[in-house]
Amino acid sequence: MHFLTVPLPEEIEREEKLGNFKRAKSLIYKRLQSNLPSPLKERLEYELERIERLIKNYPYSEKKAIKRLFKTIKNFTNREYRALLEEGLLDYITVEGKRKFESRFIENLIFARPEYRKRVKPNKKREKARQILYKRIKELLDGSRPKTYTVTAEIEVTLQTEKIKGKKVRCWLP
Description:
Layout: H1 10-17, H2 21-32, H3 38-57, E1 60-61, H4 62-72, H5 78-87, E2 92-95, E3 98-101, H6 105-112, H7 124-141, H8 161-164
């Protein structure tokens, strides 16, 4: 990953910092059309992938994020929301002029501010799963033998060629 030492062109970096990812991607595609040194080309290709992953990791609009906070935390208020934003305790980025919140922003808040843990509304499914897990751990600690399983899985992937025409397709396998 030696190409990460290559700095991004200034205008691309600026657009990313401003949250103008469409513009940044457009600038990258434009640059990739020209003859570039190999490390810069690799860096720009990597940057396209990084932007896509970044956007996927921040799926919640501000409206959905607020809704999740009210649904998850007892007696949550708009005043608290504004205070948490000001303190930088809610993980978000600006994407195309709008706040987008990280997929685990509530869990991160609860970790950073333990007082919110006490206010989390009970989740029956999660509690049942936790009880089953703790019961099994206790059994193992008391000398029970670990269970073994054989799992067979099959995955089939069909490429939609019209969506990827002219693009690189990458696949990571375990």
